């Protein structure tokens, strides 16, 4: 059944259309050196769109894109596009307030937390966090489970004294430590984790508790933000780039406990000071207005699906189908990540015959499945299956993988 979106003004607008239309799929071309006839794929994408498995900027819900398209030229009765309107005008004020309210509802954000819509990507927050909650001689603890956690750790060294209390680098970032084995430092202002490592496909399924009084848990949730329920009260700060699950690139969302605001180092640039943005309701300077509007549409869509509990069920199902295909391939495909911490969002895998990986990516692209090449630092393949990736996309990828194995195994 089609869901109905509620406009920023509160009026009911056009029902959301289904994400993808199904039509009769075409055949995959057989490999020229192996004449075995390919199997028919049982699913396909819309005739004019691909299944985009990119890690970010990532696929957006088709119905959200169509809604944005219908309002691109003239937004409601404003006589202009969202891209043209003043960020201090009543129309955009309604947009950003509605986006924040919907996000608060999705994540059940407590009242003693501020929600900020910022710029600069999650990478900027690697510096902003220690600048805001540490003095230069303060320490902070880091659990590094992948490339992004490592970048955050290295950047923090410019503004405080970070401690690397655990790193998975020696095991090629394929696991998460047992929390009871961690030795946290007395007096550390925060414990930092990357909740989901986009490149390596490692995801925290539970979260460690900070061992010292006064310290807080800080999480980079860029690639699993709004993919499942999270108890926000366990964290001092949650931050995320929008371009994975909730919008286009250009928007960074920070959820911060209010008592942590207002303690920035004196040298903190004004644009990195949470107090400035909190006092100005994310409107200290011109924000990424259109990106925030798009995030608002995505939040409405997630609520229309029944909230993050329902969204998580869909994500578990999609990931399960793909991991089952990998594990059931008798070694033809391999996922290096420890099963208990495999990401629901980013699925890295390799081929037993690595020389076939380029052919796999090439053939998949012909079948309208794109951006499956793994990150340049690790190689192989990676399927990012964020909220907006429909079940049909995962089913088509799995059918292709089985067909490819039948022809090349």
Would you kindly provide a brief summary of this structure?
With 409 residues, the chain is of the alpha/beta class. It has helices at residues 62-71, 90-107, 121-133, 147-156, 274-279, 289-304, 308-327, 357-366, 391-408; strands at residues 4-6, 12-15, 51-52, 113-118, 139-144, 161-167, 190-194, 196-197, 202-203, 216-220, 237-241, 252-257, 333-334, 346-351, 369-370, 381-384.
Q: How would you characterize the overall build of this protein?
A:
It is built from 9 helices and 16 strands. The chain is globular and about 60 Å long. It is of the alpha/beta class and 409 residues long. Helix content is 30%, strand content 16%. α7 (308-327) runs parallel beside α9. It has helices at residues 62-71, 90-107, 121-133, 147-156, 274-279, 289-304, 308-327, 357-366, 391-408; strands at 4-6, 12-15, 51-52, 113-118, 139-144, 161-167, 190-194, 196-197, 202-203, 216-220, 237-241, 252-257, 333-334, 346-351, 369-370, 381-384. Strands 4-12-11-10-7-5-6 form a 7-stranded mixed sheet. The chain has a domain at 90-303: Type I PLP-dependent aspartate aminotransferase-like (Major domain) (Aspartate Aminotransferase, domain 2, 3-Layer(aba) Sandwich), CATH 3.40.640.
